[in-house]
Amino acid sequence: MGYKAHFSETCDEEAPQLITHVETTRAGINDEQVLPAIQAGLADKHLLPDQHLVDAGYVDAANLLQSQHQYGVDLLGPVRHNYWWQADTEYDVTHFCIDWQARTVTCPHGQISSSWTPAQDGKGHPVIKIKFSQTDCKVCPGRTSCTGQTRRTLTLQPPERMQALLAARNRESTDAFKESYRHRAGIEGTHSQGTRTMGLRRSRYFGLPKTHLSHVAIATAINIVHLMSWLRGEAPAQTRTSPFKKVMQSAA
């Protein structure tokens, strides 16, 4: 049975970067499912930040909303990309007009959906299944760019969740996002340090409680190293440049 360590770390440039919380889970648990426990642990210690920087695995609509509503925390991280092939066309969901009150969706060619069905996705989250008429889709000039089936279908999240995701995606393209998110680079270095020098990748024990204790011990050792480096005035090491990137830079 594999396990995964989730470290939370401060990122203040004027102070030492220290691990403030350790969460240990079984390896098969998705990161997005772990975030509520991480934030609850930080909140119990009064260490939950106003802006919580996370990687894409922790960001979904539910966590964006819960972070804001329950703790007043701005969850900042990349949103998973839209991997539907329509994302590269003018027929992805952002080009459809949604009327939440009338429970209808209008496609880019002005056709109105024929059904609106509340349902649940594979994770048990509420969604809305939208279908368009086969009669309308079969004669549509944009059908081959819109769907490979006889009619177009859409899966929508509830309006609040959908708006949260769209807002998060739009924010990713801003300079403010890049400036804030660059501070998260330190935790990647911390994980690398734990893996390369302290055996973080392998557990010496069986069972979740003992594995968690070993993760806490590793985090404590990392904190001591970081604190001593900070007291000596040593700046954190910069991200190493891979040999391939060095070759590309010299060739440019």
Please characterize this protein's 3D structure.
This is Transposase DDE domain-containing protein. Residues 106-227 form the Transposase DDE domain. It comes from Dictyobacter formicarum. InterPro entries: Tnp_DDE_dom. There is one protein chain. This protein is of the alpha+beta class and 252 residues long. The chain has two domains: 3-79 and 168-245, no CATH class; 85-159, no CATH class. 40% of the residues lie in helices and 17% in strands. It is built from nine helices and nine strands. The protein has helices at 31-44, 61-71, 134-138, 143-146, 159-172, 175-181, 185-198, 208-231, 243-251; strands at residues 3-9, 19-26, 51-53, 74-76, 97-99, 104-106, 115-120, 126-131, 153-156. It has a three-stranded antiparallel β-sheet with strand order 7-8-9, with no helix packed on it. α2 packs across α5. The longest helix is centred in the last third of the chain and has 24 residues, at 208-231. The protein is elongated. The model has no long low-confidence stretch (mean pLDDT 89).
